[in-house]
């Protein structure tokens, strides 16, 4: 009886202090008290979903404040604060998982002409990071020119050490993502995201979630994959689909092979409205068909064993050259489950790109 009363009193004290810390600026003494009390309750710094659906990490409210996070509701049965991170100042350094990098005043667009750089630093103490994932939650930059070239606005990714060249992006990227490969064991600033907004007119905006992928994570894509999808079916779109696709890209779309699935089939997605789901131009006059020698912009993956590697372009995505209606294209019965999209930097009018649906087939 006495014991439970004591526990009750301790609990009330925590609650009371918790409330107090929100209402008054805590003095050093009060903060110490708060810390020592909260140290009694231990919880993991797990991922949490804060108010408004923002992803955060569960910290004590003091830890969240120290890390300059934003409290977005509670976690750990009310003992923790779902702490979200966002940086909207150019030159900012990302150190926390799921940090949002945004233009200043987001969701209002920016009309400032400049290059806004963000550095992504490996989480202190964690050296087992293999990838960084960028989720373009809302990102609308200037459209490329008619040849798919990002002229004024561009989003550029670089890594330290530099290993591969990442595609330069512009246009509408909302809903898309990109993986950055990190050399295992590297610490400090491992990647840089530069957003250049140089057009004199029109508001541009970006809100990009940056997350760290542990080398042992089950959701870790293989190296070299710029996009990665789990589950028996996935929909892939070229960057800026709806506008023109971008030139000078080499993008691997990778799919986790699901249990009991041995191959995959690719087809044009059903696009709502008047849109076309596939348009990769291979020079004037060579449209309306699949051609097997596509060199400027093409989709490539190993199809039926007899045909081997095959490039596909044109205005119809189908199995056979000359097709005028779309058809399903099955992959070879082999791994990896991967599709390559390649465009070269050529002064050539670009098409809309692609919106394809990939379905894994039972063995
Ligand atoms: C970062 O958060 C993501 C969720 O967005 C999670 O899948 C991942 O495991 C977290 N990374 C680390 C290193 O904790």
Itemize the secondary structure elements and their pairings.
Elements: H1 2-23, H2 28-38, E1 47-49, E2 55-59, H3 61-66, E3 70-75, E4 80-84, E5 86-87, E6 93-94, E7 99-102, E8 114-121, E9 129-140, E10 154-159, E11 177-181, E12 189-197, E13 205-214, E14 227-229, E15 233-237, E16 249-255, E17 261-268, E18 278-279, E19 297-302, E20 309-312, E21 329-330, E22 338-343, E23 353-362
Parallel strand pairs: 5-7, 6-8, 14-16
Antiparallel strand pairs: 1-2, 2-4, 3-4, 7-13, 8-12, 9-11, 9-13, 10-12, 15-23, 16-22, 17-21, 17-23, 18-23, 19-20, 19-22
Bound molecules: 2-acetamido-2-deoxy-beta-D-glucopyranose (NAG).
2-acetamido-2-deoxy-beta-D-glucopyranose (NAG) binds next to strand 13.
What is the annotated CATH architecture of the largest domain?
A: Sandwich
Number of strands: 23
- Return the average pLDDT rounded to an integer: 84
For the biggest β-sheet, the strand order reads 5-7-13-9-11
């Amino acid at each position: 009886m006495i014991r439970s009363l004591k526990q009750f009193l301790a609990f009330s004290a925590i609650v009371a202090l918790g409330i107090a810390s929100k209402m008054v600026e805590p003095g050093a003494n009060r903060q110490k008290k708060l810390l020592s009390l909260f140290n009694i309750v231990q919880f993991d710094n797990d991922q949490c979903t804060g108010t408004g659906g923002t992803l955060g990490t569960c910290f004590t409210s003091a830890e969240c404040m120290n890390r300059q996070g934003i409290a977005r509701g509670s976690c750990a049965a009310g003992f923790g604060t779902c702490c979200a991170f966002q940086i909207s100042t150019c030159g900012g350094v990302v150190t926390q998982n799921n940090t949002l990098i945004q233009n200043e005043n987001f969701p209002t667009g920016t009309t400032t002409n400049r290059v806004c750089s963000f550095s992504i630093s490996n989480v202190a103490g964690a050296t087992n990071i293999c990838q960084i994932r960028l989720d373009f939650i809302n990102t609308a930059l200037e459209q490329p020119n008619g040849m798919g070239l990002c002229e004024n606005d561009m989003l550029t990714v670089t890594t330290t050490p530099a290993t591969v060249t990442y595609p330069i992006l512009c246009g509408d990227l909302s809903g898309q993502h990109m993986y950055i490969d990190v050399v295992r064991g590297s610490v400090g600033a491992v990647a840089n995201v530069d957003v250049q907004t140089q057009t004199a007119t029109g508001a541009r905006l970006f809100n990009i979630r940056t997350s760290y992928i542990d080398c042992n994570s089950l959701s870790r894509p293989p190296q070299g994959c710029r996009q990665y999808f789990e589950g028996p079916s996935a929909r892939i779109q070229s960057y800026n689909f709806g506008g023109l696709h971008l030139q000078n890209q080499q993008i691997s779309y990778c799919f986790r092979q699901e249990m009991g699935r041995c191959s995959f089939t690719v087809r044009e997605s059903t696009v709502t409205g008047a849109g076309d789901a596939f348009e990769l131009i291979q020079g004037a006059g060579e449209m309306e068909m699949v051609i097997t020698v596509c060199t400027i912009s093409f989709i490539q993956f190993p199809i039926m064993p007899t045909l081997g590697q095959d490039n596909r372009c044109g205005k119809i995505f189908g199995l056979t050259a000359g097709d005028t209606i779309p058809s399903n294209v099955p992959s070879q019965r082999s791994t990896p489950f991967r599709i390559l999209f390649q465009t070269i930097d050529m002064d050539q009018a670009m098409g809309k790109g692609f919106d394809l649906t990939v379905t894994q087939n039972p063995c």
